[in-house]
Amino acid sequence: MSGFTLTAEGPFDFGAALRFVEDWPATGALSHSDGRALRFAYCAETDWRPIGVTVTGAPGGVAVTTTRPAGPGIRGEVARILSLDVDGAGFAKLGEADPVLGDLQRHSLGLRPVCFWSPWEAACWAVIVQRSSMLIASRIKQRIASRFGAAVTVDGHSFAAFPAPIALADADGFGLPAQKEEWIRALARAALDGTLTAEHLRSLDSADALAELRALPGVGPFSAGLILIRGAGAPDAFPGDEPRLFAILREQYGLPPDSPAATYRRLADSWRPYRSWASFLFRATTYSK
Q1: DSSP string covering 70-86
Q2: What percent of the residues of the chain are helix, what percent strand, and what percent coil, each to the nearest 5?
Q3: Nearest to 276 by CA among 251, 245, 244
Q4: Can you tell me the distance from the alpha carbon of 231 to that of 122, in angstroms, rounded to the nearest whole number?
């Protein structure tokens, strides 16, 4: 086992992150929370090898143990997953100028975006869940992990890590329609060539990153936003074309039903440089995750 700590800059509540994960279908049986620790296994983007992770609360942040030595790359990945790689001190100040956002912040103190273990996994989830319920998609994702992924034991709990891209690049029989399987194979190749990675996506302007993602097979506007925000953990992105988020904002801000997309983009501009965080908070504390 290897261990390290991550310190939060700005408000952070690990308990709030745990409560979010417990109800998040996208992770489903591929993670475990007992109210004190988060345990999961994944294929680290650093080397695409499986690793088990245990995260517990610590003063000012979290303590992390891993089933194999964790270099800077893996430490950075765990920080990204919990949005601890971003200085969040300025986020609370946004709520002082925006009473609607401020009210959400007070009711969800210290909740930061909890991300997919990698953009690759987020992209696969985005394909699997299309035209499906989250419950069914969660079961399919678990079956893919059990068939093609590696088994990892974390603190006595056995987990199937979602497969590395190389395991799915030429595979078939995922239990999905042929078109979706073709898309996942293409996404695997994009992950292997470095396009579908957090490092690459975070190096781009958010608009350019979204455009690149939309060019990938099976990735539409909603999926592109999901991959960038909840996969790569980009803190300041706004997809600009997400009807469910728009509906939440209409209700929360009392906007007219026929408000154009530009209205929501202008509203989101007031949340810079935390547009992703604000969008996450509205979704996490209202309708859907």
Answers
A1: --HHHHHHHHHHTT-SS
A2: 50, 15, 40
A3: 245
A4: 5
Cα 67–chain centre separation: 22
Please state, in angstroms and rounded to a whole number, the distance separating the CA atoms of residues 33 and 18: 7
Q: Is the dihedral of CA 155, 160, 165, 170 positive or negative?
A: positive
> Rounded CA gap, 227 and 61, in Å?
25
Q: How many other CB atoms are found less than 10 A from the CB of residue 255?
A: 15
Measured in degrees and rounded to the nearest 5, phi and psi for residue 240 equal 75, 0
Q: Name which of 240, 237, 222, 242 is nearest 271 in CA terms.
A: 237
Phi, psi of 126 (to 5 degrees): -60, -35
b (16+ CB within 10 A) / e for 50-70: bbbbbbebeeebbbbbbbeeb
Rounded-to-10 torsion of CA 172, 178, 181, 187:
130
Per-residue pLDDT of the chain (289 residues; tens, 9 = 90+): 789 999 999 999 999 999 999 888 787 666 777 889 999 999 999 999 999 999 999 999 999 999 999 999 999 999 999 999 999 999 989 999 999 999 999 999 999 999 999 999 999 999 999 988 888 999 999 999 999 999 999 999 899 999 999 999 999 888 899 999 999 999 999 999 999 999 999 999 999 999 999 999 999 999 999 999 999 999 999 987 788 899 999 999 999 999 999 999 999 999 999 999 999 999 998 754 4
Query: What's the longest Cα–Cα distance across the chain?
Result: 55
The DSSP element (H or E) to which 148 belongs, if any, is helix 134-148
120: tokens are 């690759």
Q: What is the DSSP letter of 115?
A: P
